[in-house]
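Comment thread on ticket #2218

A.B. wrote:
> Attaching the input chain for the structure job we discussed in standup.
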Amino acid sequence: MTTARRDATTPRLEIRLDRIRHNARTLVRRLGSRGISVTGVTKATLGSPEIARAMLAAGVVGLGESRVENIEAMRRSGIDSPMTLLRSPMMSQVDRVVASADVSLNSEPEVLAALSASAVEQDRTHGVVLMVELGDLREGILPADLEYVARAVLALPGLVLRGIGTNLACQSGVSPDPRNMAELSCLARTMETALGVHFDLVSGGNSANLDWVFASDDVGRVDNLRLGESILLGCEPLRRRPIDDLHTDAITLVAEVIESKAKPSQSWGEINQTAFGLQAAATDRGTTNRVILALGRQDVDPAGLVVPPGIEILGASSDHIVLDAGQTHVAVGSEMSFQLDYSGLLRAMTSPFVARRFSDPAPT
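C.D. wrote:
> Ran it. Output below, let me know if you need it in another format.
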């Protein structure tokens, strides 16, 4: 805990670009030795140009984003690297997707037809990666239908079938493993033979694939991963374990204390729902030091905060997070720093009330 300066802006994210660059470079090197390139995913950063440039400087082959608005903003900032729209395009945005993204991940024939029409109208060529459903039950074409959709893409003007991909561990927590990754490779080879083409991209998934890659003797046809969490937070998503030699503190959230008082640990009066639903009965701990931060659910997912030792989160409303500091006195006006998990990072990065402070003390 430190004393806040009057000219300091809180809450804020303190972002070490050198550490993000180190994480990205380390993963690019390790995966490159297995024949796998890295697409740097910026979606948790609201398309931050600063973070995008750090990833590109580290050797990622392109950027991945889920929102066309963020791709457009990065283009306006001067970033001209290959960009992939990760979320399936909305029919209402196909013109913007074709205009700003080089590639999009797709699973719906109707959307593909609309992308084709827009590409022809704009006199552009748009790359397509067909997503395959391998068990996580989010986006993806069932394997039995893949050849039909792929042939349709090959017949559509303005589109180039770049390859196939899959996504695991996001919706249902299905882990990438030797079985489903072998199925993806088998599908790639089967489609190439049936269609008489060669895929230049077999996108195996996201940061959740890292354990599988590093434990595998053979990664098959997988030649690209889409990495965000591992670069930004230095951990893998399946068990949230730190990855060797990566920084887990590249991004820190700083909040200011606006109240600090010794209070009873149990509330009194008739108890009903809180602003965000039911609240479990508090354990009676006697009188403890309660700390309130100028930080709330509009700014961050409280469950995504990694609190300092000796501190416990008691609850959160729109604009306040209440902490139990035990017997430790915390001064009003002081700042408290927190590490974040992916959910916390996503909410904080996209809140208009959380400032960003970039530093790059040792550019390489």
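A.B. wrote:
> Thanks. Noting for the ticket: DSSP finds ten helices and 17 strands in the chain.
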